[in-house]
Amino acid sequence: MSRTQHQFKLVLLGESAVGKSSLVLRFVKDQFDDYRESTIGAAFLTQTVTLDDNTVVKFEIWDTAGQERYKARAPMYYRNANCAVVVYDITQTASLEKAKTWIRELQRQADPSIIIALCGNKTDLEARRQVTKEEAQKYAEEEGLMWSETSAKSGEGVADIFISIARKLPKNVPPTASRGAGGATPTGRARVDLNKQTPTAGPDACNC
Fold first, then answer.
1. Which residues contact 146 (CB under 8 A, 6 or more apart)?
2. What is the pLDDT of residue 69?
3. Which residue intervals make up region (Disordered) (predicted)?
4. What are residue 59's DSSP bridge partners?
5. Is 39 within 8 Å of 208 (Cβ atoms)?
6. Dihedral through CA 83, CA 191, CA 35, CA 147, nearest 10?
7. What is the pTM of this model?
8. pLDDT score, position 203
9. Is 192 a member of any domain?
10. Nearest to 122 by CA among 167, 92, 80
11. 48 lies in a domain?
12. Is there a domain that residue 191 lies in?
């Protein structure tokens, strides 16, 4: 049976240290590193998922840095994005408040058709939970967001959130061209080694 491939731009947003890069590393390479260095600038990678109907969805993933002083650079990563995963840490109430700020920004400035998923990471630290499932799920329902919880460390729920997004993305449009930051087309094959990240937002890279 022939397969139809669709390509979508996905951006990860959230406060520093909530586990964005660890989620992507688990999704793309099924790996976890307890001692990962902070993201520098932003990392670009790709991963594909095959749905039940044999449709192939290719994600072009922009994993953004989380430090506040680099927030102004975020629009060039979420511009033209088809979907966004906004990550918070279930052990840090403040990270959910930060996630809500990102979501409001996406709702104001991103493509109106963007699919937004709110993701509570670090369920392996259940004993330290500060954000209840009920609180986060209620907020997601009120804002019309997808919602789930994950553990990048154990892998729990990680593939599920990306597959759920893939299922929700429209398949009745022609495959989109490869789009990088700001809609530019990246040259060459996407790098998937998160241990060797390259700044993409200028010479003064951030640690976040």
1. 115, 116, 117, 118, 140, 161, 164, 165, 168
2. 54
3. 173-208
4. 8, 47
5. yes
6. 10
7. 0.82
8. 29
9. no
10. 92
11. yes
12. no
Residue 180 lies in a domain: no
Whole-number Å distance between alpha carbons of 144 and 139: 9
For 163-183, write each residue's pLDDT tens digit: 999 999 998 765 444 444 544
Residue with tokens 């390509």: 7
How many domains does the chain contain in total? 1
